[in-house]
Every structure is written in C-alpha cells, then in structure tokens.
Write a structure and sequence with these properties.
The structure is a homodimer.
Chain A lengths: L5 E2 L10 E6 L20 E17 L6 H10 L3 E11 L5 H19 L6 E8 L6 H14 L4 H10 L8 E9 L2 E10 L8 E2 L17 E6 L2 E2 L1 H13 L16 E6 L6 E2 L5 H24 L7 E9 L2 H12 L2 H8 L5 H10 L10 E5 L7 E5 L2 E2 L4 H7 L4 E7 L5 E8 L3 H7 L12
Parallel strand pairs in A: 4-5, 9-11, 10-12, 13-17
Antiparallel strand pairs in A: 1-6, 2-3, 3-4, 3-8, 3-11, 6-7, 7-9, 13-18, 14-15, 14-17, 15-16
Helix pairs in contact in A: 1-2, 2-3, 5-6, 7-9
Chain lengths: ~450, ~450
C-alpha cells in the first residue's frame, strides 16, 4: 500500500472538533503556585473533543504502575472518552493510595469543569517519582486549562509544551488522508527523553512471550476525526505502537507511566472499517503507522544526551521474536552504544552482544554492515562471521553521520525486526547522576 | 561452617609444585616484536604444574565463543591439565578457522616446550576482537615464558601482570587451610575491567532456565595442591563460580572469552572428598568460595570507570531465579547506575527497574534500604512501597561511601540473590567510545 497523505498544521487539533490548552500551574512548586507565572514552561495540558470519542489505549507493562495509568485502565474499559488531562513535573508514581485518589480527582475535576462523565476523562502524569501531586496547583491548572481551550495550532503547541520534561524540543505531527471521499485527519503529540524503552499492552498485562522492556516515561496523545469502531481503533493502535513506540530504546529503562491514547470523534464523517470499507481501514492504518513512527523517532532523536541515532535492523533470525531480542541486545549494549558515540565501526562488540542475546546466533553466518537511514545500499564490515575488505576509513565514514542504519543478517530464518536506538554519551551520565546539592533533582 | 584460613603470599604458586611466568612478546605489535622490550607491560602468562593435575573449568555461555575457549573445552574433556598459557592484547575472538588453528598452536607449542601432551595445555586470550594473533610473537613469548618459569611470588606477579588489559591493578590471592592434617593451599589470579557480566557453565552451553548474562572478558586461573577427584573439583568450582564470578556485572556485556580454570595437583597430600572426608570437602569448598568471591569483587572494584561498588541484595522473591533477575535488572539499569554515580538515594529508579524485571514484584510490598558492606544494620528508604521518614541527608550519607549494600525485600517468598555491581560514570563512556584518531583503540 502506497500511502498518500498531506502533512498539516495543528497536531492534535488538526482533526475537526478537538481543542487543546497548556497552562502553567507550578507542579514542581518552584514559584508561588499561582497558575500564571510568566516565562515558566507550561506543565498542565488538556485535550478535549466537543463530542464523545471512541477511545483506544496502550499502557506500560511495568509491574510498578503509576496511579494515572491505573485510572486510564479503569476509564478506558468503557471505550469512550472526551478529554485527556496531563501534568508534567510529577509522575504520581509510587505514591500509594493517595496517588490513586489524586489521579481520580484529576479526572473528576476535569470532567466537572467540562460537564462530562468522570469516566470519560483520561489522565497522564510524568516527572518525579514518589512525591505526592500538589493538588491545589493541579486544581487551579485544570480550571485555567478549561478556560484556555481552543482549536488553533498555538493551542496545540501549548499542550505539547506542557507535557515536556527533559525533552529539548516539542514533538508533534498531523496528517490528512482521503477516506471514502472524506478528508480525515490524524494528529499527535508526545514526550520522552529518558527512562525510554516502552513495552506497552492494552491491559498493562505482559504478553507471556515477551519480558518487560522499556524505560523512560513516554506519553503520546493522538486524535482523529475518523468515524471508526472501538475494536478497529484498538487493533489499529496496537499495530501502530508495535511498529513504533514499542520499538524504541534510549536507555533500556521501562517507565511506570508509559501511555498512548487515541481518540476518534467521527467529525469527518469518513467511516472506516465497516463492511466493504476494508481498503479504508488499510489506509487509516498506514497513516496511523506513519504518525506513530514519526513521533517515536522524534523521542529517540531528543533522548537524554543523545548524539547519534541508530536503527538496528535484524534479518534472518529464526523468528520475529528472536530478531527483536537480537536487535534489543545490540541497541541496549553499553559497549555498542559507547562505540556509536565514538564513531567506532566496532563489529566485535555487535557480534558479542548478538552472542549473549536470547536469539539463536551462529558466528559463521552473521553479516554486519551500515547504510544511510532507510537505504538498502549497505557497506558490509562482516560477512559470514569474517571481516570484509571494506577499508577502515570507509567504515568510519559510514558511522560518522548523526543517523545511520546498522544491518545485521543472522542467516538462520525469516525473522526480522528493527529497533530505534541511540548512543550512550557522557552527557547522559552527567544529566542522570543528578546533583545532590539540588535535592529536587534527586529521589524518586 | 566457620572457615579458618590464613592468607599467604604467592597466589598461583603458593600451592606446592606450581610455577609461573609472565613475559612481554608484543602481542599488540607496538614495538619490534622482540620479546624483551624494557618497560612494556607483560602480555603472555604461563602457569605450570610439575606434575599432571586434575582440571576443572567454566566457560562463557556467549554463543560467539572465542577460539581459546573452544580449545579449552576440547582439552578439559580429558580431565587432566598441566599448563595454562594466556595472552593479553588480542582476544583471538571472531577470528574464524585461522583463530582456532592459532589457539591450538599455542597449546601445542607450550606443550612441546614443556614436554607434556598438547591436550594437557589450556589456552586463554583477552583483548581486541577480530584480529589474528601475531603467531611469531606468541611463539617467541612461549619460549621466553618457559625459560622464565619459577615459583617465587615475583613469578606469580609477572603472570598476573601479563593477563591484565584495561585493569589498573593486579588481582591475586592465596589462602592456606588445614585439611585432614595437611596444609593445603588455594591460589588464584584474575583480570576483568570491561565487558563484564559473566555467565559461565561447564560446557559453554546455556542452562535452559537462564538467559545469557555477562559482558567483559574475565579470566581467572586457580591452583591448589589439594588431592581431589575430578567430579568433586568440578562441582566445587561450579558452586564457587555461581556465588562469585557469575554474580558480578560492570556493564552488563557478556564476553566471548570468559574462562575460569582450576588445577589441583595433589602436592599437599591432603585428600579431599573421599569416603569419610565430607567435612574436608566442605572446608575446601568454603575456602574456594572465599578465594573466588574475593577475586570477583576485585574485578568489580577495578571495573572500567567504576567509582562506586554496590552489592544489590534481593530477598523475599518467589524463587532464587526471580531474586537473581530482580537484582540484575537493578544492577544493570542505566538510570540506577548513574544515580549511584551521583550519590543519589533514588529509590524510584530502583522500584522502576524491579517493576520491569522478569521477577514478580508487588509495589505495595517492596522494601528498599541501604547499609554498610555486609552489615545487617539497614537504613530503609521505602517500606511496603511507601517512603519512610528517614531524613534525605541520612539517605544521601548512606550512598556516599565508595562501597555500600542496597537491600531489597520483595516480601513474596523465600528467594534470595546478591549481585555485585557498580556505577556508570562519564569515565566509562569516555574510555569505551574509543578514539578514531587511534585505530588500534577501535574495531573489534
């Protein structure tokens, strides 16, 4: 399927009938706690649909689950949502029963202000772990955000800013496609930076075949004006996340808060997935895959301390699961990641990581090479376990760009997988070691 | 069992009948290739017993297995050894058929010079991956080493120096115990530094229940003058390694070359393990455990860039395997390791890592605390998932020393495990990113 789409402005408010806001309410308690300090990064976001939406979601499989994730799991069981309220600066994770009451309160206060049922409000949080939410500030923020709602690209930009933590850049996108004669839009915003290797599922329960992956809070909120049934929407989101957010790693740490939500309000009257509309569903899926992959790659590029971004492409594994395991072992190896940082075409460390992965690997069959991002023109450094004659300076040149693809062929079967990874730099260590002179940077 | 032992000088030559040597033969080809350049670190070690020994060994479970490991596995099948030849500067890993021929040649040349059967010579290598061994230099080194053999502590120190790579300090120990009225000694030397999370087994095959762990070459060579049968010796070594070398991690990367060998020549006439000597076997085991744990902890303390050493002690897991998985998730988490570097008592990151481990974890049951090494006086920061009232400055003080224990109680069962880990520092990243202006630091 060749996807035809147009990139449009406005991210989450590009689809008809959606509004957004982002305000400052001093969740980190750096100032007075009033909701309007000038020049401060916004820290509370609100996304609202003028009509109830069909809702789909995926959540962290970390057994230590933040309170907002628990609330989302309860509320999304009904399949309908109309608002998403999100704060940054405090993850409301490891906060016990009070944390759960606070997350429920966030939903209730948002719903009351918008005059919707509480279970139609979804909740997200990201930031420090183990500290109670300052609920007075949150309440003031929700009140301000409801007043500030609007449907311009600036409103969406405010919401995007409000969910950022250690992100250095806002991450947003919207595309327009044609579905059954109607113009349908899909928009999204996300945040990431550290503790990034998500492994999300619909229930938060782990798929039996896959140990928990992922580490950093990543949040992604998607909107569409397509008219689509709940099961189709959930299945579409699961496929898109499996190919994007669940395929990235910055530091191999899976967060307690990872959340992806997708709201469809039918505002475009382009119906998807009904009888005879399978082609439309495929177009919708392709567009959603594109939106999620673009957002996911923005997270890797803006990961904490990241200098180089590397796509690890494994082919020829005995199965897709083994290809995934092999690619993750390479993308999470401290020695491989530091070699990427140093511009070192070090196939020995790659082969070593493959060897200790849970995938079956036969040294004498392994090919390792490099290409430009997405290119099939590969410079092989290793063929069938033996170094090629590729000049060392050419290999160095291949790993010098800030983005490149690492190709691995195990030559044992048909399994393939890609993992979007990054280097490990002194800047990552420096950022995450914290500063004990500043207790706010530490603990939780 | 309360072990009574005396620490003695001479490490691997402390047991009667063993000799050692360490020479320079320019394996890295930094000089002329002559075996006698002044002031260069020695790079070829030889350990020799005047009589044939009962031999036991454990080897990396990495599927990419270096040539010397393959040769050791073949030779140790006979159960007898009389010499170990080891080079540093080149791992002879990922070197294909030529690498295997070279490793066999090392054994053959050593055996010929010592007039022993080739299969009684064991081989070890550590250093750069993917580069053929300079066999002319190796041959000269073996010749020089055989001539240099001797039984003084200085001879053992030369061998210890010769196996070092990025190690900054030699690692050696010997103890003396009383067995059945005889004075028996156990000595050992080892090296580590980077690519350190060994997961070794007797056959190099993986135990089905345990995915491959470990990453850095670690080599350990042990000698004893106890008289002990092969099966008892192998079992004793397996227990000792399970409690020591297989419980350390510096960077989570398991090497292609990890090797532990133990040679017993019976020179003390203290027989162990025969009928009625079970008590002796327990004493021998306790002494061997002590020797291996001391050596293993030296590797962690001298790991690449390591500033702080942390023992992660997990109790109350549903099983020992789950305790091990939980402790490894914590000890290998980039975010936990950077917090150790920063002196940050960050229980949130510990809880997050526990949550994504493959061990069962219930947030509301977890206790997290700190103590001095080996102490049971724990300062708890988290009890049953909730922060305690321990003052932040006291928690900071608990994680400030260069060694401390991190205590985790899952309160779900009786499984326990300890992992000896370390912090992640800018120095580790800087060291391992290499220097592309110096190609010798890169590739393989």
């Amino acid at each position: 399927l060749k996807l035809k789409f147009t990139v449009v402005e406005g991210s989450i408010v590009a689809p008809r009938g959606f509004q957004a806001a982002g305000v400052f309410c001093d969740i980190k308690r750096i100032g007075t706690g009033k909701g309007s300090e000038k020049g401060q990064k916004r820290d509370l976001a609100l996304i609202y649909s003028e009509v109830p939406c069909v809702a789909a979601g995926l959540f962290t499989t970390n057994q230590v689950r933040a309170a907002p994730v628990t609330v989302c799991l309860r509320h999304i069981a009904g399949g309908v949502a109309q608002a998403i309220v999100v704060n940054s600066g405090n993850a409301n994770a490891c906060t016990g029963r009070k944390g759960l009451r606070d997350a429920e309160m966030m939903a209730r206060q948002t719903a009351a202000a918008l005059r919707i049922p509480p279970e139609h409000a979804m909740v997200g949080s990201t930031g420090r772990i183990g500290v109670p939410l300052p609920m007075g500030n949150v309440r003031a923020g929700i009140r301000d955000a409801v007043r500030a709602l609007g449907a311009t690209p600036e409103h969406a930009a405010h919401a995007t800013e409000a969910i950022m933590t250690s992100d250095t850049r806002p991450k947003q996108i919207a595309v327009e496609i044609n579905l059954a004669g109607a113009t349908v839009r899909i928009g999204g915003i996300c945040k990431g930076a550290g503790m990034i290797q998500p492994g999300m599922s619909a229930s938060g329960a782990r798929p039996p075949a896959r140990p928990g992956h992922g580490h950093a809070t990543m949040l992604a909120f998607l909107t569409t004006d397509a008219a689509i049934g709940r099961n189709d929407l959930q299945r579409a989101l699961e496929e898109a996340v499996a190919l994007s957010f669940n395929r990235i790693t910055v530091d191999g740490d899976m967060s307690t808060n990872d959340t992806v939500l997708l709201l469809a309000n039918g505002g475009a009257h382009g119906e998807v997935g009904r009888k005879g509309r399978r082609a439309d569903l495929r177009v919708f899926q392709a567009a959603l895959n594109h939106v999620c992959l673009e957002l996911a790659r923005m997270i890797v590029r803006d990961g904490e301390g990241v200098h180089r971004v590397v796509t690890v492409r494994v082919e020829g594994a005995r199965s897709g699961a083994e290809a995934d395991a092999a690619a993750r072992a390479v993308a999470n190896s401290a020695l491989v990641k530091t070699s990427w940082h140093g511009g070192d075409p070090n196939w020995g460390r790659v082969l070593d990581a493959l060897g200790y992965s849970t995938a079956r690997v036969v040294e004498g069959r392994v090919d390792i090479g490099y290409s430009e991002p997405g290119s099939r023109k590969v410079l092989w450094s290793l063929r069938r376990g033996q170094p090629t004659r590729a000049p060392f300076k050419d290999l160095c040149a291949a790993v010098a760009p800030v983005e490149f693809d690492l190709h691995i062929r195990l030559n044992l079967g048909g399994g393939r997988a890609a993992i979007y990874g990054a280097d490990l730099t002194e800047a990552y260590v420096d950022f995450n070691k914290g500063n004990i002179a500043d207790p706010a940077s530490l603990g939780g």
